[in-house]
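User: Predict structure, ligand glycine.
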Amino acid sequence: MTFDEMRYSRIGFTAAAAEKLKHKMPLALKKAQELDFIPYTVKDNQWQPGPFDGMCWWTNGFWPAEMWAMYRMTGDEAYQTEAQRAEDMLDDAFRDYDHLHHDVGFMWLISSGANYRMTTCDLSRKRTMLAANILAGRFNPAGFIRAWNTDRTGWAIIDCMMNLPILYWASEHTGDPRFRKIAMIHADTAMRQFIRPDGSSDHIVIFDPETGDKLDAPAGQGYAPGSSWSRGQAWALYGFALSYVHTGKQEYLDTACRVARYFISHVQEDWIPRCDFCQPADDPLKDACAGAVASSGLLELARITGEETFFDAGCRILEALDAHCADWSEDYPAILTRCTASYHGNDHHIAMTYADFFFMEAVLKLQGDDFLFW
Ligand code: GLY
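Assistant: Predicted complex:
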């Protein structure tokens, strides 16, 4: 079956979801328009900023990305204006360079990068190139991209697979292979050192920054060392699929498919991921965000491979999120509510803008929009 034939089989759900987004998002936008921060979560029906790092908070690209997604869905210029306003605000993060990290791909590829690819705005191109250079500057020739700051010189995390597309874009855009080569060295390391034989993934791997030897794999945002933090699995699934899209390297696609099969086999009870697939069976903690990321990644894999299993799972997750995790009311500005930042943290079953972005992105794919934010 072609991807379009698969899409048509879910046309009723797609139309209903798009209608709900078109009704809800003008209200979400109205609540953001006067703010001097970029929305992250919700408290008392009002948008709240990220908890630390100021404008460098790693999710700050997702609000402008949501605005571009809605612009693509509706053509309404109010979304474009807000996307541009948030992108301008992000410049403060470049000035606060000390707090920047490897998540510059999340911050700029889907904000200024999307803007440039849609409008050819030259300032947006420069912002995206600057972010790509910052990410390239975090590359350790021992074989990985460093994730975080302070003394964590050898720390890499699976989430970084989703930051690599800004490097692929930089090479595609400039014709300079350096960025792509860095991304592929990191992806090759991640394939060998993070992905386990059963298709699950570690969240964090600590390398010796001199030799590149693997030293440790702590629990990170998951339940315990050796467990399977569901959002980490989703980052791996979608991230390897994207590395395949940009390089054509078959091993990346094979890895993405292996992770996808692991994910599907652990979510199919009710299609809403537990926070960690290895958490105690009686622990009800969920992460709707992992579901949204995986759903969009599975639809991408279906688009690449034509495999109906991936398409069906992506849709079932999306339908479960819509039915059991979404707040479509008018006062509450976000959509998905059962998102969990980290298993052992305090932010359980909250809203997170990046969950909403991936939900929208999945709906756009079901509508047949072939613009790839990544
Ligand atoms: N990249 C961090 C997270 O997924 O929470």
